[in-house]
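Pasting as-is:
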Amino acid sequence: MREQSDVVLTRRSDRDGWKRTTDCPQTGDEVRPLAEEDGKEPDRVQDQQQEEVERDREVRSMEGSVSECRQEWHVTAHYNWVLVGWIVFLVSQPHPAISGEAKAASPARTIVGAIRWNAWFGGNTYQRYLAPANWHTRLPFYSTSRRDGSVEVRSDSQQVMDQEIGYAAAAGLDYWAFCYYHPASWLEADKYNYGWRLYLSSKRKADLRFCILLQGQHLGPKEKWTETMQTFVRLFREPTYQKVCGDRPLVFMYSVAAVREWAGSTRTAKEAILELRQAAARAGVGNPYLVAQVYRPKDGVDSIDSLGFDAISAYSLPGGSGNQEYPFQELAKANRSFWDTCKATGKPVVPIVNVGWDNRPRRGNPAFGDLAGPWFTEPTPAELADHLGSAIRWNKANPHNAPANAVIIYAWNESDEGGWLVPTRSEGAARLNAIAKLLRPPVSQRATAPLSTIR
């Protein structure tokens, strides 16, 4: 990441076949446990007619036309037909492949997303940090090596975006959280917004939802807040915008403390956040579910109590001490400790799942100052999937503390900081294959694409 740094509607599950109703508390409400229905499991849908009904309902939901005031989770079997299409797509693409069928039913219905940071545009600063050979294992599938020893890492094309959507969706991810930079933040800030724009222009966007990740220091001029809010509201209106608790647009914010400085005071910062809620309400797009990304749980509590946020999470939470290496399991342990400490506050939580942390490629570069601190060994695909599974199990075991039933992964493409799921030239789609086994039921076939086409 750049260092400059009340209405509950129907939601349909892509993975959980059981029907149950939950109320997600609005800001200021007491967090209540998920309310179960009569405990009876609905019959599995078997006949073709019922499958067609379910498919029609899915399409209507993606277009934002469903507005019942409850959350229903349905059994469905209609995803089998998607498998053939995914295999054809993946085999035809010039990048590593992911096994399995597109999103299918699973016992747990936790919404799983990943942070997407979009700095990989033409001439970007960050690609040079990955040029040394010892960092080439991190190079994403869309990177190229040059004869002079440099590398080019660019994902700012529609073709690459469409391929990445295919990967993320086939792995079972529900959404990407796009880092948003107000164009006035600095001279080239708007370049970092290419990701969500390419996503919105993709013919494949219906395969994967999205949300925005705001930053307290990059909200734009305070006097233009009304205009900026309308940009966010337009995004909330998108049919593929990720909602939680029914109709509530999911919004993360990093550098929450900077909001006070931006607004001038705690009071005016809280008013600005309330204005965003009111603008969304006037537009009929639901009350935003605002998640504060912090390093200390007590700061998350303050964000909820003083500023009106809804839940606590983190952008990344490496933990550890000193300037030394630790095994990945220590990183996973630090994440789990954060979840439990947040739980102890009694506030809602969206668990953070680090897939890694090692920012040594950036160290020694004046733009980042005196970077230091711990780093962690890269996880095996199995370790990564197990860690994500622990977050999903945590949500299931703590419904009172995780009313949104969502998880956020650091990260999809923070390659130079050590957090990535995006397929790489070294290990292909091994990480995504591993989490696909967790997020989707097993299948008997593995789709493979020619790795020889990757430079």
